[in-house]
Amino acid sequence: PLVFGVASFTDLVISTCNDASSVSCVSGAYHLSYSAQAPGWPFLPSSPSTYTSTAVTVSVGPAVRLVYTTEPANPGAGQAFGQQPAVRVTDLGGNTVPSFNGELAVSLNNQFGRVCCASSSSCPFCSSTTIG
Q1: CB burial class (10 A; 0-12, 13-18, 19+) of residue 113?
Q2: Assign residue 17 a region: left if phi > 0, alpha if psi is -120 to 50, beta otherwise?
Q3: 20 and 75, same structural domain?
Q4: pLDDT at 125 over 50
Q5: In the prediction, which pLDDT does 110 show?
Q6: Is the pLDDT score of 11 beyond 50?
Q7: Could you tell me if 53 and 39 lie in one domain?
Q8: Residue 48 pLDDT greater than 70, yes or no
Q9: What is the C-alpha to C-alpha distance for residues 85 and 39, in angstroms, rounded to an integer?
Q10: Long-range Cβ pairs for the range 71-80 (8 Å, 24+)
Q11: How many domains, the chain?
Q12: What SS3 state is found at 107?
């Protein structure tokens, strides 16, 4: 609220790209719009009651989750997946974190066997692979 003609903020955050979206905002430039109104205080036509800020740049945050970009397709026994899986590392806003480099472990969930790469040059370990 405006108190004595001044409004201060302590916890503004860009949480979604627009009111109708449940998708998180991606990094980039945004503008904040402010509008004021109070009963009995009409703004002059030459002085608008709405103000738009200069660009606010949202940058990629720290890595917090893995997201499938391609789900694996059902393979035949002992064959490579017809559609290879792909994952990416994202921040809270769903932005890919290009600076993240690390190990990605690939394993079977509640199954016997192991996950291996058909080519030893692209996947030197039978239990994990490197991303980044």
Answers
A1: exposed
A2: alpha
A3: no
A4: no
A5: 62
A6: yes
A7: yes
A8: no
A9: 58
A10: 80/118
A11: 2
A12: coil
